[in-house]
Amino acid sequence: MQPQKRYFIHTFGCQMNVNDTNRMGEALAGMSYAPTPTADNADLIILNTCSIREKAEDKMLSALGRYRQVKLQRGALIGVGGCVAQQEKKKILEKVPYVDFVFGPDAIGKLPDIVSRIETEKVRVVETAWVDSENYVFPQADPKTSVGRTTEFVTVMKGCDNVCSFCVVPHTRGREVSRPFTDVLQEVARLTTVGVREVTLVGQNVNSYRGGISFAQLLLRTAQVPNVERVRFTTSHPHDLSDELIEAFRVEPKIMPHFHLPVQSGSNEVLVKMKRDYTVAAYMERLNKLRAARPGIAVTTDIIVGFPGETDEDFEKTYQLCADVRFDGQFAFVYSPRPKTVAGLKEVEWGPVPHEVKVKRLERLNALQRQCSLEVMAPLVGQTVEVLVEGHSRTREDRRFGRTPHNRVVNFDGDAPIGSLVEVQVEAASQSALSGRQLKTLSLPNVVIPEVAPVAESCVVG
Fold first, then answer.
1. CATH 2.40.50.140 domain extents, the chain
2. How far is CA 40 from CA 7, 86, 312, 460, in A?
């Protein structure tokens, strides 16, 4: 009997990429490939890439350099998928001659054919053609790959129609395509049969979903699927935070009290250059209405520091916005020009911000966020929180970990089965996590979830 071949997928970036990695794994399983936790003994290595930030591309090239040794020693095939592959296929093939294949996000379903062709014909393959929106078929998730998990991503749409001046998504993921709501609900139902109790609906601009019903209606229907206890989603654009969506947060407790709402800048002048079609006042009006509908909701955001033309005054407006809102968390990073974007083409005209100025501004903003996050977490010490148990703690094997409804990580002493909802007494808090001990089990999963290691085929680096 021929030994089973092994694959390793190194995943960069967002939740969409994590979900795409799962679909790649399912496709390879159909070819009798099995996952391996390290690249060193892999017969096939895939880098699932992200091009949102320049640093992600640098990390990809660095990883390719390391994996070259595996190719030399074992003859492993190496492929590059995802957004960088879609955007920079020519550069990858020229700069990294030992890469065997390059494929875009729309070609995940063709992965078995690509690998088979390389194995039999010994040729390099490029598959980055767009699939027309009307012909696009979303990969169907196999629930068997979710065994051992209590929370899972479900893709509901792909692409983006907003064309923000800094963003490459329209160039790498294409225009918006929404998945029929019946397909989404069927996938969610199938996931519950293997123990999944929490689903996160994902898409580049998820609340612009148009798959036969509105996004708010999709959330409400997902919450009604038997054995679904928690519903989340990411990521959103402020102009799609409708009154209907806000009302869904008010009426449905299974929609978790956490909303990631990227503001990007606190300066209206910068927002115009970013092609963000809202003002700071409009953003705050939506945010305040959301907080009124769901008191205590955790709100996180994205901030770009040092956007072309950003003055000291512009940055101070961003800093003050963050000080006033007191976000629970934020993903802030310095601006880096991306290919084919308006901001990248106009950076010289608008005025590039010196790197050292960007770094100083980012350090100030991060210091403020650390303070805000700690102010949110510290008062929870001594309180009881509800936690959905996801598995063993990453900080200590003999502890459990999970998340609160507000998406706060909790490491705790206890023995409740994975998939349980438990009460935890909080005994300590940092800006990023809570620690405590299990008090009692509120509910058990509807099926026994085996205690398996985290997803072996994925290495998420952000």
1. 381-443
2. 10, 26, 48, 17
DSSP-derived secondary structure for 96-119 = -TT--EEE-GGGGGGHHHHHHHHH
CATH 3.40.50.12160 segments of the chain: 5-129
Which top CATH class is 140-256?
alpha beta
The whole-number pLDDT of residue 131 equals 66
Select from 140, 353, 168, 172 the least CA-distant residue to 265. 353
Residue 248, both tokens: 């869904």
Residues of the chain with pLDDT under 50: 1, 453-462
Task: Give the whole-angstrom CA distance, residue 218 versus residue 284.
Answer: 25
Tokens for 313, please give them.
Answer: 């005054």
Cis peptide before 301 (omega within 30 of 0): no
113: tokens are 């054919």
Round to whole Å and give the CA distance between 19 and 206.
14
pTM of the model: 0.86
Mean pLDDT of the chain: 91
Asked if residues 397 and 430 have their Cβ atoms less than 8 Å apart, the reply is no
Residue 132 burial (10 A CB sphere; 0-12, 13-18, 19+): exposed
pLDDT score, position 43: 95
pLDDT at 462: 38
Superfamily (CATH H level) for 5-129: Methylthiotransferase, N-terminal domain (3.40.50.12160)
